[in-house]
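Fold this sequence, please.
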Amino acid sequence: MQVTRFVAGSAWMIGMRWAVRCAGLVSTVILARILTPADFGIVAMASLVHGLLLICSEMGTAQLLLRMQDADRQAYDTAWTIGLIQSIVLALLMFVAAYPAAVYFKEPRLVAVIQVVALGSVIGGLTNIGTVMFRRDLDFKRDFLLGFYGKVVTVVPVIVLALIYRNYWALVY
């Protein structure tokens, strides 16, 4: 029974990765027709700053919850709180790093972009930590649905915003 759940879970995870990548590919192809390479470049610079600071601030609370056999509500609440604090600290670091990054990349528009991405980091810190239970319990179907619908919910507005703004702000928002 456990082997069957593992195989089914693996199939769901592979399906999710492919579905998310296909949705990303479709959105990239559409956005490449609407936006300029410079638009993608500004967002890539902001993503670089975000990624570097995220790596430095990652604490691995979700992975710890996965390994805990007897994780209770208090453990999940603590992990969520730590994640929120981590997101707020990351946002503050990004706000501070926005100016030096703009100077380094010689791109003054980067300051506002990084600061908006920083706000997105705080919003990301509010996500439900309980989804870790899906992976711990090998319930990858729910993980798939959450990941896929989450991608669709972001792809559609980005394309609409790209049609409206026709610049990098569509990607940032």
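The helical segments are 2-34, 37-57, 61-67, 73-105, 110-124, 132-136, 140-165, 169-172. Residues 49 and 106 are 14 Å apart (CA to CA).
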